[in-house]
TrEMBL record:
Cellular localization per UniProt: Membrane
Species this protein is from: Tripterygium wilfordii
Name of the protein this chain belongs to: Crt 1 isoform X2
Keyword Transmembrane helix tagged: yes
Keywords from the named record: Membrane, Transmembrane, Transmembrane helix, Transport
Membrane-topology annotation of the record: Multi-pass membrane protein
Gene Ontology cellular component terms for the protein in this record: membrane
Family stated for the protein in its record: Belongs to the CRT-like transporter family.
Length: 421
């Protein structure tokens, strides 16, 4: 935003305000008396010249002349435009990591096809160690302060228990629901986010943003869940299981909004300093791992693993994961593929939380939803260990068009009074 031009003036030099555009000439007359000439740049609206001499001050109007020296100040960059560009760049990075994470997870399950529960728990508890290690390094580097560490832990505890409940209820419902119904019901996540951000954060959304979110969710449903038997996908299923899957989405949406709340609320406590994302990642994942550990007997039974046999299962899973010498039967591709997935998924989680920090939880969810059809397309191509991909239908292409249309509609610029707060 540029500063407005000032009007012409003539005053004592000691009373000149800052950021005025002027010309200062110092000269000696032939009679050897010094004169300090102060001139406003020659423009139609600034015709006067103010001369200050020994004992008097007088104004004379001269014809405009080209100034010798001009001092000016202006600002051309719009902060809102810069922030929007930053959000777009981070959204593109998040989508890229999300696609890579989804594809590599599918590849990681090739050697770990008998141990998906082990891989899930390994990432849950492994991330705690990785995130706290990064937090330790950043703390000693001065990037994380004592004030950040001293933030109240109750929001992080709420994040942990909500994410653990989301995992537990999601697993329970997924075991009883047909595959195509799961992505359809998961789209309630975005609706829950809109509701929670309005209630908890007091945000208000313009009509185009609400319509855009619904188009994104609807497009994903068309792309993923369409088919000749789509109308009967929930036939014969008790209503309690779709309700539990919807509740799972609500738990996870609530956790994402609380993360955004932590960033917003910490600005006052930290006196305007930005909260480091590894503080949120570390404590959030730590409490999540704690509550997952408490739910472990339930989770193992939901996956068909009796709790008494869980130690044996974990030992076998670790042997397949490590795959020393490549001699473990049926574990070809380990440990390279699982490690690639874990590394990419960590980068995705960091980029996703950073996007929440600079924008909102809803914007980050839209970026993740965009990655779903892209991932499906990539997985339809011949890949190592997955030579035959599924063919894509016309419904998939139609769903992608609807999804992208929703993203465009969501990002249509609005007047400030109508924009979300």
């Amino acid at each position: 935003m540029a500063f407005p031009h000032t009007s012409s003036f003539c005053a004592r030099i000691s009373q000149l305000p800052p950021l005025r555009t002027c010309i200062i000439d110092v000269s000696m007359s032939s009679r050897q008396d010094s004169r300090l000439g102060l001139r406003i740049p020659s423009k139609p609206q600034f015709p006067a010249t103010c001369n200050v001499s020994h004992g008097s001050t007088h104004i004379q109007r001269n014809s405009p002349r080209k100034p010798n020296f001009i001092v000016g100040a202006s600002i051309n960059n719009s902060p809102s435009s810069s922030k929007k560009n930053l959000v777009l760049i981070n959204s593109a990075i998040t989508v890229t990591f999300a696609v890579a994470s989804r594809v590599l997870y599918k590849l990681a399950l090739v050697p770990m096809k008998d141990y998906p529960f082990f891989l899930a728990q390994f990432t849950t508890f492994g991330y705690v160690l990785i995130y706290f290690s990064m937090l330790y390094v950043r703390y000693h580097a001065g990037l994380v302060t004592d004030e950040m560490i001293a933030l109240p832990k109750s929001p992080f505890m709420a994040i942990g228990i909500l994410e653990a409940l989301g995992v537990a209820t999601g697993m329970a419902a997924a075991a009883m629901l047909p595959g195509p119904a799961i992505p359809l019901l998961n789209q309630t996540f975005l609706i829950w986010q809109l509701a929670f951000s309005t209630i908890i954060l007091g945000r208000r959304y313009a009509f185009n943003q609400l319509a855009g979110c619904l188009l994104v969710a609807g497009g994903l449903v068309v792309a993923v869940a369409s088919g000749p038997n789509a109308g009967q996908m929930l036939s014969g299923v008790e209503l309690v299981w779709p309700a539990i899957m919807i509740a799972s989405s609500a738990f996870q949406a609530g956790a994402s909004i609380i993360k955004e709340f932590v960033f917003v609320n910490s600005a006052n406590r930290l006196k305007g300093r930005s909260l480091d994302i590894f503080v949120v990642n570390s404590f959030g994942s730590g409490f999540q791992a704690l509550f997952v550990l408490l739910f472990l007997p339930l989770l193992s039974n939901l996956k068909g693993i009796p709790f008494a046999q869980l130690p044996l299962y974990l030992r076998s899973g670790s042997g397949c994961f490590i795959n020393i010498g490549g001699r473990a039967p049926g574990c070809d591709g380990a440990p390279l593929l699982p490690l690639l997935y874990i590394t990419t998924n960590i980068a995705f989680n960091i980029s996703l939380l950073n996007l929440v920090k600079i924008s909102s939880a809803v914007v980050s969810s839209l970026a993740v939803l965009l990655s779903v059809p892209i991932s499906i397309y990539v997985l339809s191509l011949p890949l190592p260990y997955l030579p035959k991909g599924p063919s894509l239908s016309s419904s998939f292409l139609l769903g992608c068009v609807i999804l992208v249309s929703g993203l465009v509609l969501f990002n249509i610029p609005q007047p400030a009074k109508q924009a979300s707060k």
